[in-house]
Design goal:
This protein is α/β, with parallel strands linked by helices and about 280 residues long. It contains 9 helices and 12 strands.
Length: about 280
Amino acid sequence: MADLIIKNLHVSVEGTEILSGIDLTVRKGEIHALMGPNGSGKSTLSYALMGHPSYEITQGSVEFDGQDLLEMSVDERARLGLFLAFQYPQAVPGVSVTNFLRMAINAHRGVRGDGRNDDPDAPKPIKIPEFRKVLEEAMELLKVDRDLIRRYLNDGFSGGEKKRVEILQMALLNPAIAILDETDSGLDIDALRIVAEGVQKLVTERGMGALVITHYQRILNYIEPEFVHILVDGKIVASGGFDLAKRLELEGYAPVLESFGIEAPARVGAGELAGTKA
Ligand SMILES: Nc1ncnc2c1ncn2[C@@H]1O[C@H](COP(=O)(O)OP(=O)(O)OP(=O)(O)O)[C@@H](O)[C@H]1O
Ligand SMILES: [Mg+2]
């Protein structure tokens, strides 16, 4: 089972502790939502799990698929089935979306260079007809426009277009566990529904597990999480079911946290939801 098991994770950036003891288990087929005010450490958690070099793990452990995730390189993590959709996807001018997606699949298969190799057991690049087929399926699932994938990756893409291409990449790579960092921000109402239903489909049909980082309950109407966690100042201070997200939307952080016996940080007012940056 490719479960993700995080125990007492402490993460520092440039000597400052941002995460102070995270305990969280995401199993295949489960949807978890991670909510929390701006700056509480949600993106830090996703970067640390993907192995970004600026995020130093000072304590704790992360197990993925029964192995020590923290000992793995970034591409080993990806090959084992961990996927991160970034809050701010980067542009790659000069590389078309189609080529990027094919390279991503090949890298994921462990193909080195152009894949020419005398070793018969070496991983082989995906064949073009097979690539076309999986790409068509994923584009159909996520209603991605043909013109978009001919363009250079994220170069001049609108915020919503970048997010769609990220999710297209996810559908092609077929991860065991996906972390979606504010995939909903910047998507228009129709795109939000299509992307969210696509994620839900990967969960239902392929048994993917998802950690959905979001500020708003809206995406959770299409991707219904079994578990909702609230992160404040680098700690998960409360966990519950879907109703917890609904309560946050209605009441804001302060009253909900108070009901758990936690004092909200001063910058989080009653009835006020933290906004997004994207
Ligand atoms: N590279 C960095 N250098 C300095 N500080 C950082 C760095 N990365 C994160 N931080 C700090 O860590 C804290 C947590 O940031 P993070 O991006 O994880 O928050 P977040 O919960 O994702 O917020 P948001 O909801 O706004 O996306 C913030 O105070 C941020 O300024
Ligand atoms: Mg963030």
